[in-house]
Design a protein that fits this description.
The protein is α+β, with helices and mostly antiparallel strands and 125 residues long. Helix content is 42%, strand content 19%. Strands 2-1-3-4 form a four-stranded mixed β-sheet. Strand 3 and strand 4 form a beta hairpin. Pfam families: Thioredoxin. This is Thioredoxin. InterPro entries: Thioredoxin-like_sf, Thioredoxin_domain. One of its GO terms (molecular function) is protein-disulfide reductase activity.
Length: 125
């Protein structure tokens, strides 16, 4: 009887995280709380780029998608705003930096999907 209980507890301990993970990812992607609008989210993402940068042009549709959906995001040209780029230690572009009240919380270098950047607003990667 004890072996049966141990086996059942072990199976539940293994299965619960798997089921929860599958439920999270099968829900259709990122969705902030239903009553929270993108503009009401804390902080914003700074998209550091330059007009001459091919990788930045490749990442621009992601920026546009978030902007058009109402997410707080700002495009920062490193040539026009070198002080802001220096303040956040930007040494390569494109770079997405999530800031809340001026404090950096997370960053992603290079191109990133809109789904990944949306997760940054919720504290994930």
């Amino acid at each position: 009887m004890q072996k049966a209980i141990v086996v059942i507890v072990a199976m539940i301990s293994f299965a619960a995280p798997v089921v929860l993970t599958l439920a999270t990812y099968s829900s259709g992607g990122f969705s902030p709380a239903e009553d929270v609008k993108p503009r009401d989210l804390p902080g914003k993402i700074l998209f550091f780029s330059a007009s001459w940068c091919p990788a930045c042009r490749h990442a621009d549709p992601t920026y546009q998608e978030l902007r058009n959906a109402g997410y707080p995001i700002r495009k920062v040209d490193v040539d026009s705003n070198p002080t802001l780029a220096q303040q956040y230690g930007i040494s390569s572009i494109p770079q997405f930096v999530y800031v809340v009240n001026g404090d950096e919380k997370r960053r992603v270098s290079g191109s990133a999907s809109a789904a990944r950047l949306k997760r940054m607003y919720r504290g994930g990667w």
